Amino acid sequence: MAFEQLQAVINDGITKRQHTCVQICVSVNDRTQLNAGFGKATDQIPASAETVMLWRSAGKPLTVAGILCLAEQGELAIGDLLGRHLPAVQGTQFEQITLTQLMSHDTGLPALETGWPESDWYKTLDGILKTPQQRDPKINAYQPQATWFLLGEVLRHKTQAHTFAEALETLVLDPLSMNRTSCGFSEHAGDARYKLLPDLFFRKGTDLFRSDLSDGRALQSASPGGNMRGPVSDLVLFYEMLLRRGVLADGQSFLKETSVELMTQRHRVGRFDQTLQHKVDMGLGCVLDSKHHGPMVPYGFGQFSSKLTFGHGGAQCSMGFADPAHGLAVAWSSNGFCSEPQHQRRNRAINEAIYKDLGLHSSHQQRKHGFRRNPRTQ
Description:
30% of the residues lie in helices and 16% in strands. By secondary structure, it is α+β, with helices and mostly antiparallel strands.
């Protein structure tokens, strides 16, 4: 399949200097339709399916999957108060927040600073817990990073891992064969993935400037809500598992169907988000199709996605989602942070081009192709 409309959108972004490359993977009913890189990852190296891209917040669902694994093991319940599992939060305003509230961005907290990546893990946690900001039940605010460090510490603490990255690898990445992905890179000189990293850019005016997220502390330091890196085909493996209702490609169970239901059902519905400045419905670590609240919903999936679609974007660079109505799993990442307005237009254009190239942009064509339907829609 040529994906001509998708390639046109990506090339238009290169021409407009929104990015120099985009990597994308698309599968339908577990069959890969596209897995490729377009453009240049660096001045000397073209992008490919192997390029190790930054996902930013598109990696948030992986942390939630780790929490759900611990719940299935009896280590916690998602309705538990945070103070039950992290002694460090006892006596703070975070003690009475539930894990569900953290995962659905329903804490009543405004967006908080973390000090990442300059601060190390424990200094970051300490700074979050000492924040002077107070909870307000009337506030609904998407949390880019801060509360995700608390979820990450739950994973690290409950697994007794040395780092969050190790806990996530054990709970999620290894079982899903996402072996090219990690949350931050260790400083192993022999890590071959360093040769597969793209240059990352931010756009100022009409020019692209190299971002400090390309290397240094930002490359090496874990951030559970914002620093997952790997080829996006690894992220498609994750969404394919969710489309199979928690079952791995080899038939083994990774999550129970009830856990997948919990993750993808609407926990926060029809409420205005102070961070995103729009009404957005939230699952656990997932944004749910919200275009019924308006077509310009930020980090949405485009006009052709079904109401069952769920996923998560990464700030000004990436998107991962699954549309159960069509057995569709998509992940893509660009290396250009091109401002919110431009990225939102790019996000919609890429997502909608995928549906058009697959012939899923009209109900007539959807019926014609006869794609697998999720049991909830039958």
